[in-house]
Amino acid sequence: MALSRDQVVATAVDLLRRYGLGDLTMRRLARELGVAPGALYWHVANKQELLVHVADALLSEIPPPPVGQPPAEALAGLSVGVRDALVQVPDAADVVGLAYAVRPGATRALRDLAGLVHDVGVPASERDEVAALVVHQILGSVAGQHNRRLAALADPDLPPPDAAAEAKAFEVGLAVILRGLVRSR
Amino acid sequence: MALSRDQVVATAVDLLRRYGLGDLTMRRLARELGVAPGALYWHVANKQELLVHVADALLSEIPPPPVGQPPAEALAGLSVGVRDALVQVPDAADVVGLAYAVRPGATRALRDLAGLVHDVGVPASERDEVAALVVHQILGSVAGQHNRRLAALADPDLPPPDAAAEAKAFEVGLAVILRGLVRSR
DNA sequence: ACCTGAACACCGTTCAAGT
DNA sequence: ACCTGAACACCGTTCAAGT
Q: Which residues bind DNA (chains A, B) (predicted)?
């Protein structure tokens, strides 16, 4: 039966997860799907658009924050959850960064995050900016860990990143942000 | 006379500044220098290494913070200065992000930043983490503005980013970080 | 409506051979 | 020491033509 766009996107996510952005090429994707490269352009305008759909797919798998939790705690928990999900996918920070810049509120996970920033007491005039700060810390941490992993592979003198230490570093930064927010209630 | 590595890097910076990472290819760079593509590999191991040198060149142009300023103020000023410098160069966030992940203290500007984080009273155990947070906010802001610019070019329905508003958003986030630091003195 | 085949204009990298 | 020429194994995208 005919190919669907969902099928194209799902296979793209799979390729990204397994081999990274360097191997997520239109030609490779077509091969994986058993079609000619040109066939993909019936389902997707171009590679950029495909990557936005891939970002949406990655973010849609993140569990929503549990209800009834204090907002600061929920914000921290969701931030860690988003980071945990993305850190497993090579180049996720690049892919999601693109999609976020264009449409910050397009996915539920990032809307939840903005909502919690509101709940924590940030005035409406600064809500988007603070949400962006949290997103930068998440994507920066993910990108940093991934870059260090690549660097260690390329140069055996460099130590590979320690996942626990990276997660800890992320939470230290997040705690600074949360302290900064409390004073603005 | 013979090509030098500095010459190769300087031309690469120029290409990045003028046309972005998409046009900073080894072949294009070789053409610009009037040599065969293979010639570049005498001066540089590969493209990755070239990009690290490019990042160093970009960061080395940033003015150091004036002495005698209160540390929190100097930290804010330097952060804004780094952002201002990078936001003018397409894809600077990607290029610098790579170099920073591998060698956070390799350039003076980023060492100054880490030093000011210390001066502001952050305990030694959290210095690197907080410096990374500030760097994430800088690079995230730069990447976000650039991604929005690209998106607006590709899709005329999207508004182009307003430079002043982007700068303001950055400073709001930075202020949150600084408030979070004050409590940890 | 959906896909193939073939082309166009590119990439990064290697390496024998030249000077 | 430094560079050329030529090759290898790729890219994203387009589009007439087929079913």
A: 25-44
Say yes or no: B149 contacts chain A, CB-CB below 8 A. no
| CA angle at B161 for the pair B173 and A127, rounded to the nearest 5° | 35
Is B71 buried (19+), middle (13-18) or exposed (0-12) by CB count in 10 A? Answer: middle
The B residues from 11 to 40 touching A (CB cutoff 8 Å) are: none
What are the tens digits of pLDDT across the range A14-27? 999 999 999 999 99
Residues 6+ positions from B27 with CB-CB distance below 8 Å: B37
- Is there a contact between A104 and B150 (Cβ–Cβ < 8 Å)? no
Distance from CA of B166 to the nearest CA of A (A): 9
pLDDT single digits (tens) B35-56: 999 999 999 999 999 999 999 9
Give whole-number Cα distances, B123 to A151, B73, B90, B177, in Å: 28, 18, 35, 15
Gyration radius of chain A's alpha carbons: 18
Question: In the structure encoding, which two tokens stand for residue B25, read together?
Answer: 């290819």
> Domains of chain B (ranges plus CATH)?
5-44 (1.10.10.60), 63-183 (1.10.357.10)
| Per-residue pLDDT at A41 exceeds 50 | yes
